[in-house]
Write a sequence for this structure.
């Protein structure tokens, strides 16, 4: 297939995809790899990695298995990343499409509304939202979604602005198609490629945002997450580096992989731009 | 045309040039084994349809080939030196000093944030010639030479302050700044209006006589060729099929492809047309006006009167041509008739058989959508007018479906329509990118016909097509009109096309209709001064007119 071939031409993208698949596999296999709760204290605290075969990545300050936390944390990070990106797409795409297609006053009003969100520091807003709504899975997803939709709306608006003057959209007007139908069948399908690329990059930043929230102790208290693990181990960074290092490294690898894969998607979906880069 | 002795060594000689295309292209070579030579002071026109590789030759000479295209053989000798073997710094020195180039788009080939004179001075700077004050003096002298009004003032202008023709003159001044031996002009007049085109062609011709510059002129327009060429080379799919003096090639073409190209050029003499039977008008437009207002925060908004007091009517089976140059408002009028653009004033009345009068201009949004099917449009750009993500069947059947027809029935109809416009019925399952420009335009026509309209508005419907394809589409439109009795409003800038297809013609200038009349009478005895100018400016009038 042509798309796959173009994607594979970007070595970094393939590497990213492989890392990503590994993380997804760990996340899916978590219940069978470590059936018991990652919160359970299973050994002595502060055991170094590889000191005991049972705990390849060591144990933390309370004697919890870090490997178990990592695998279960992958589930949480990925899920929050994906779901909150979907939330922000659900807000951003319709807003951008309406603003771009309607133009005039509607466009002005919606864009000022978007700018209102862009002028507030997004991390501060996310903290406030989570603090007000109680730290739970739902409120974290909502907070991340609410702070990350403005770039989506801007992107979609720009695409729609240029697409709506295309002759095939005008042709759809002359044959009497209704406006919602024109937006859904003529305009939006042609914006899918940039939205997919942006979405894949946004998953990465959503994971970062979630990690930062749980690092500050605003994560869901029932879910083990990478950010929480880094935060919990930070006071013992010098004498028990592994407690913070492994989850931190996992965050780094996953976000890097998402960015690499996103860039590869971009090349594969816009073959003309990719060729120009060579 | 001047006679050049064959003994003078050529300025440029291209020997067996072959350019390889990347592996996935539709043919192996962009051009194959092309041999050409241009003597000093001579104009060689390279003609061919889109995709013939004519522009690739120009880019190869300039050393500006796209990365994917590689020279695979042959030589390009400029005054004896092989350009293909030069490295990039040496080639940079050749560009400008020895070869000047004029591009197609005067809008995009000048830097919008630099004053005109500074862009010419850049050419001197790049080659380290002259002192600062002399550079400026020369820039003004060049602007004078290319016939720009008030050169000292114009030298300080920015490109957006100039018209298209003026910008192209600036480009010519830049190309000639270092008195190159060779000037390459790649479709330099294609984006210009006919009257401007005539002036630019004349300027180019004068300058090369004065300076003895050889000109390599790339074009697809046989009319332009007839105006300017000493010798002509015809390219078909990258292969040189015929070369000779202008009189030979245009007067007695030997190769079948050249004959086909020449035969496809529409004549300026309108064919005889049977008179239409008296009938009430299908579409009548009265006092249509459209003013574009630019929104601005401060001060008064700028107004452009794109259409003013436009009135005309169309009867069943009639074609009215709306001709004029760019900015004359002809497309605005066409789009106002469909209310794709909302007119500011005037009445648009549709009256079909038995359906009574319908004042289109008074309808609200919902009623308008229901009645839109009675007037349909064929668009200019066959590549932009079809949604790339929908199948052809979907594209054609969407119209009837929007008006309550079941998808299955509409698809059956789409198959019939595809056969009516000369495509095979199984095209319904394919996507637009699988078709050529002419085939796409046929699909666009089928989409318009799917709603069984009374009136068709064709907005430059054949302007983006090669001449041979253009002729096919024109005869298709005529054929469909006689079968279905459509009234057609044909918007075009091309008087040749208008002469061939229109029953009546309305000439527009600055938003107003200045003259209307039956085609034959208007071409034989134009009444308005502007119509006379337009007719005189049609390129190749002398050769192809009669």
């Amino acid at each position: 297939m042509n798309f796959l071939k173009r994607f594979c031409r970007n070595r970094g993208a393939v590497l990213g995809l492989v890392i990503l698949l590994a993380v997804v596999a760990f996340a899916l296999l978590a219940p069978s790899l470590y059936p018991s709760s990652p919160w359970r204290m299973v050994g002595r605290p502060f055991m170094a990695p590889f000191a005991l075969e049972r705990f390849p990545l060591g144990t933390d300050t309370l004697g919890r298995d870090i490997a178990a936390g990592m695998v279960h944390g992958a589930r949480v990070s990925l899920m929050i990343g994906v779901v909150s990106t979907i939330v922000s797409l659900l807000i951003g795409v319709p807003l951008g499409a309406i603003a771009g297609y309607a133009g005039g006053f509607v466009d002005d009003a919606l864009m000022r509304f978007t700018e209102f969100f862009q002028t507030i520091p997004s991390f501060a807003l996310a903290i406030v939202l989570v603090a007000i709504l109680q730290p739970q899975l739902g409120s974290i997803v909502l907070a991340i979604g609410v702070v990350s939709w403005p770039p989506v709306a801007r992107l979609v608006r720009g695409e729609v602005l240029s697409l709506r003057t295309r002759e095939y959209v005008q042709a759809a007007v002359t044959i009497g198609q209704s406006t919602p139908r024109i937006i859904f069948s003529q305009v939006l399908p042609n914006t899918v490629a940039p939205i997919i690329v942006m979405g894949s990059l946004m998953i990465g930043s959503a994971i970062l945002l979630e990690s930062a929230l749980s690092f500050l102790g605003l994560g869901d208290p029932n879910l083990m997450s990478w950010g929480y693990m880094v935060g919990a181990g930070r006071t013992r960074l010098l004498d028990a580096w592994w407690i913070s290092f492994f989850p931190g490294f996992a965050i780094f690898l996953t976000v890097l992989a998402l960015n690499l894969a996103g860039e590869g998607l971009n090349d594969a979906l816009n073959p003309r731009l990719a060729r120009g880069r060579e | 045309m001047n006679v050049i002795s064959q003994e003078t060594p050529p300025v440029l000689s291209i020997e067996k040039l072959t350019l390889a295309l990347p592996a996935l292209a539709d043919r192996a070579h962009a051009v194959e084994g092309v041999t050409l030579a241009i003597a000093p002071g001579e104009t060689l026109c390279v003609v061919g349809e889109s995709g013939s590789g004519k522009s690739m030759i120009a880019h190869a000479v300039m050393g500006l080939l796209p990365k994917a295209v590689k020279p695979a053989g042959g030589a390009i000798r400029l005054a004896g030196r092989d350009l293909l073997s030069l490295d990039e710094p040496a080639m940079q020195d050749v560009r400008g000093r020895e070869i000047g180039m004029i591009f197609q788009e005067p809008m995009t080939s000048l830097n919008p944030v630099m004053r005109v004179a500074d862009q010419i001075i850049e050419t001197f700077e790049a080659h380290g010639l002259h002192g600062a004050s002399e550079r400026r003096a020369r820039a003004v002298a060049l602007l004078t030479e290319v016939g720009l009004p008030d050169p000292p003032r114009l030298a300080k202008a920015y490109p957006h302050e100039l018209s298209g023709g003026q910008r192209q003159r600036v480009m010519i001044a830049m190309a000639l700044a270092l008195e190159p031996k060779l000037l390459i002009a790649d479709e330099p007049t294609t984006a210009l209006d006919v009257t401007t085109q005539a002036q630019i062609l004349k300027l180019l011709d004068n300058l090369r006589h004065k300076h003895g510059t050889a000109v390599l002129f790339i074009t697809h327009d046989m009319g332009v060729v007839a105006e300017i060429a000493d010798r002509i080379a015809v390219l078909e799919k990258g292969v040189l099929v015929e070369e000779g003096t202008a009189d030979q090639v245009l007067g007695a073409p030997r190769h079948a492809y050249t004959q086909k190209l020449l035969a496809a050029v529409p004549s300026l003499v309108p064919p005889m047309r049977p008179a239409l039977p008296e009938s009430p008008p299908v579409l009548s437009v009265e006092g249509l006006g459209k003013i574009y207002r630019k929104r601005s925060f401060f001060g008064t908004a700028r107004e452009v009167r794109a259409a003013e007091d436009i009135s005309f009517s169309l009867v069943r089976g009639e074609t009215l041509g709306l001709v004029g140059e760019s900015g004359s408002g002809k497309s605005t009028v066409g789009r106002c008739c469909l209310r794709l653009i909302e007119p500011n004033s005037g009445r648009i009345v549709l009256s079909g058989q038995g359906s009574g009068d319908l004042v289109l201009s008074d309808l609200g949004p919902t009623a308008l959508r229901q009645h839109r099917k009675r007037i349909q449009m064929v668009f200019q750009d066959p590549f932009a007018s079809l949604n790339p993500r929908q199948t052809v069947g979907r594209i054609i059947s969407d119209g009837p479906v929007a008006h309550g027809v079941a998808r299955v029935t509409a698809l059956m109809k789409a198959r019939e329509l595809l056969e009516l416009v000369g495509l095979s019925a199984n095209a319904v399952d394919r996507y637009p990118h699988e078709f050529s420009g002419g085939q796409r335009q046929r699909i666009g026509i089928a989409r318009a016909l799917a709603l069984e309209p009374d009136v068709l508005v064709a907005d430059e419907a054949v302007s983006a097509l090669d001449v041979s394809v253009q002729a096919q589409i024109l005869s298709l439109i005529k054929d469909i009109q006689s079968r279905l009795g459509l009234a057609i409003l044909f918007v075009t800038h091309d008087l040749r096309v208008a002469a061939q297809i229109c029953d009546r013609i309305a000439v527009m200038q600055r938003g107003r209709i200045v003259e209307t009349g039956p085609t034959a009478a208007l071409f034989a005895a134009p009444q308005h001064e502007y119509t006379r100018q337009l007719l005189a400016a049609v390129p190749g009038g002398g050769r192809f007119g009669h």
Notes: The longest helix of chain B spans residues 194-211. The radius of gyration of chain B is 26 Å.
